[in-house]
Amino acid sequence: MYQFSYAEIMEEGVAVSKDRERQVLERSIALLKAAMAVEDRYGKEAVEAVYFTRRVWIRFIEDLGNPENQLQDELRANLISIAIWILKEIEKIRKRESRNFQGIIDITTIIKDGIQ
Predict the structure, then answer these.
(1) DSSP assignment of the chain, as one string?
(2) What are phi and psi of 95, to 5 degrees?
(3) What backbone phi and psi angles, to 5 degrees, belong to 73?
(4) Do the beta carbons of residue 35 and residue 41 sit within 8 Å?
(5) Which residues of the chain register pLDDT less than 50?
(6) What pLDDT does 13 receive?
(7) How many angstroms separate the Cα of 80 from the Cα of each of 47, 52, 67, 87, 103?
(8) Which of 5, 23, 84, 90 is most exposed, with the fewest beta carbons within 10 Å of its own?
(9) How many other β-carbons are positioned within 10 Å of the β-carbon of residue 26?
(10) What is the mean pLDDT of the chain?
């Protein structure tokens, strides 16, 4: 029978969570790139990318705002600020006031690459 320490189990849980976060961000990036690739940047692909990306960043804000979140306060605040910027850009795209998919892709890639 396997025996694991509590610390090992918790570390594995954190690793799995971080992997999921990276996967979700990769999916968001892929959808945003697909939306950029089509001629109609406000078509079906854009709707899917906007909807998914919006849900991801709202969920991140909820998690970062949770008092049980173990990230440092300054990092949490910075990530919330980034999330708010992304949500504003997504809303501009939704309203057809912007086509800044690349800016969102760039920032999301930096965040994804920073998850360790």
Answers:
(1) -----HHHHHHHHHHHHHHHHHHHHHHHHHHHHHHHHSS-TTSHHHHHHHHHHHHHHHHHHHHHHSTT--S-HHHHHHHHHHHHHHHHHHHHHHTTS--THHHHHHHHHHHHHH--
(2) -85, 0
(3) -55, -45
(4) yes
(5) 1-10
(6) 65
(7) 23, 18, 14, 10, 17
(8) 5
(9) 13
(10) 88
Please give the Cα distance from 81 to 99 (Å, whole number): 21
Q: Residue 39 has which token pair?
A: 């001629």
Entry field: residues in the chain: 116
pTM for this prediction: 0.84
C-alpha span between 69 and 52 (Å, rounded): 23
Residue of 40, 76, 71 whose CA lies nearest to 61: 76
